[in-house]
Amino acid sequence: MIIRALILAALCLASPAMAQDRAALERQFRSWLEQTIWPRARAAGVSRGTFTAAFDGVALDWELPDLAPPGAPEAAPRRQRQAEFSAPERYFRRGAVEGAAAVGREMARRHAATLAAVERATGVPGRIALAIWGRESGYGRAAIPHDAFAVLGTKGFMGRRADYFTDELIAALRIAEAGHAPQRAMRSSWAGALGQPQFMPSSFLRYAADGDGDGRADIWRSEADTIASIASYLAHHGWVPGRDWGFEVTVPETVSCTLEGPDQGRTIAQWEAMGLRRVSGKPFPEHERRGEGYLLMPAGRHGPAFVVTPNFYVLKAYNMSDLYALFVGHVGDRIAYGMGDFEGRWRPVAELMRSDVAAMQRALEARGHDVGGADGLAGYKTRRSIGRWQERAGRPATCFPEAGMRAALTR
């Protein structure tokens, strides 16, 4: 993000000519709003007054990441900075986990009636809704820094996923037209996510719920609506009532880390027969033993291992990161049951450039592996493909990208 900001600053400020280029793009932006966005907004039922108010004083936000303004050079390769896709050890900092759980327990007491009602209505445990709320906005305490219309307008006009953000901009205008948001409350993240549950505008239109009975779904000011909306999202994405999200386990060396993934499920009883055991020493609940489970090793052999249920992948629908879903499940358990740290330890792993991981992925694809796309992110398909390559090469299977692996794969 720093590199991108420097590039944009250089593009716009290094000379009078470049400043003129920026001014020209601002004029093009206003024309785009009038000629492209206003007709779509009007067709979606947005009034001219709402449209004008939304963009009053709005200009292109040149500090946002993932922009592609005309004439800007490509950014240099960079390390992964988005927390959900970086080093697992850093993502699970003790202070972050303990802080989220401590405030979550306070919120569980404060909102006990709402949480119970929401769980009855949706089947989603209150502890899970609380953990997502904590992760997304610090239980409403985190500052939400950006004007949503500036973010979505900028990304729709000159972002790398312009069509997606243009659609989200129209959804945000529909929210404003319907009067869901308090005046001037349409604040968002750098990606355009709104309110305490950090819903994209299209998700708000589909899943926002009224938790306090006032006939509105106010995810900006109402904590009850925030809780109900998170649970509504998970329920609509297939949360299975009565099942947990997963269990930390020990995985014997005789069980390959390449068995990870939601497409290699077995009943939990079958995993148990292969030697996997809960780290707590407790047996798996009988109803869980009959259900399907999946091996999860988000750091390969360099960290804790889990058997997760289909509900884990519902959590991933909220944020497509194994670490995010694991954090939410773990913090939820700490809120409700007072559990401590994982028994397994995250061992330090190399923080590689995304370009390095992408090169490994392309090399694995050339060898016939399905890595899920060469995106530079070590998801489960990439992890297990690394493990399969390691096993075929006679190496110990770690199922995680490591320094020096790129050279070995590409030579």
UniProtKB/TrEMBL annotation:
The keyword Signal applies. Residues 28-333 form the Transglycosylase SLT domain. This is Lytic murein transglycosylase. GO terms for biological process: peptidoglycan catabolic process. InterPro entries: Lysozyme-like_dom_sf, MltB-like, MltB_2, Peptidoglycan-bd-like, PGBD-like_sf, PGBDSf, SLT_2. Residues 354-398 form the Peptidoglycan binding-like domain. Residues 1-19 form the signal peptide. Keywords: Signal. It holds the Pfam family SLT_2. SUPFAM superfamilies: Lysozyme-like, PGBD-like. GO terms for molecular function: peptidoglycan lytic transglycosylase activity.
